[in-house]
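Quick one: structure tokens for this chain, please?
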Amino acid sequence: MEYIDIETWDRKDHFSAYLGTDFPYINVGANLDITNLLCFCRKRNLPFYLSMVFSAHHIASQITNFKYRIKDGRPILNDKIHPSFTYLPKDRELFIIVIPEYTDEITGFLKNALEMIAEQGTDPGLNLVRGRYDIIGYSAIPWIQYTHFIRSIVKIGVDSNPKITWGKYFNQGDRVLMPFSVQVHHGLMDALHVGRYFQMLQHYIDELS
């Protein structure tokens, strides 16, 4: 992690402008075509949810703006970011938060995530996200084919960790689509970067084999 020299940063004016707004966040939702990812998971007997977490984080890690955060009112750049995802243990209605070490390879990541889930048990892990500037929050609402969703934040303007959520997937013709939303701090990125993220993620899913 390193502090960014705001005086030479190309986002200086945008950062300052949005930092002072009442709600400095943008939330973009769109349908993601997950047809190929579902096939990929079924062929290899992989859990879809955790595979989606990996895919979403794998792409976010490749975009610099998704590594920006705000610490003590100043912009920082993380050299590495990690996924923080909600998980619903079997026969329970209360989720837990799991933060595995990110590994840039799906098999290794799934192994780490499943081991951590087993070790954590029913410990909610809510304290794990406090004071973290190097995470992206992932969650799913598989019961609802929603059209828009806004995530909670720790404190308006201070919480700068991106939050990515998806809902219930559905069939459209011979494709399977899923509502997918990305919530980010506008001082750190724009819709251009979110749009780039959607494009890169879709391409990654389409190329899985």
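The mean pLDDT is 95.
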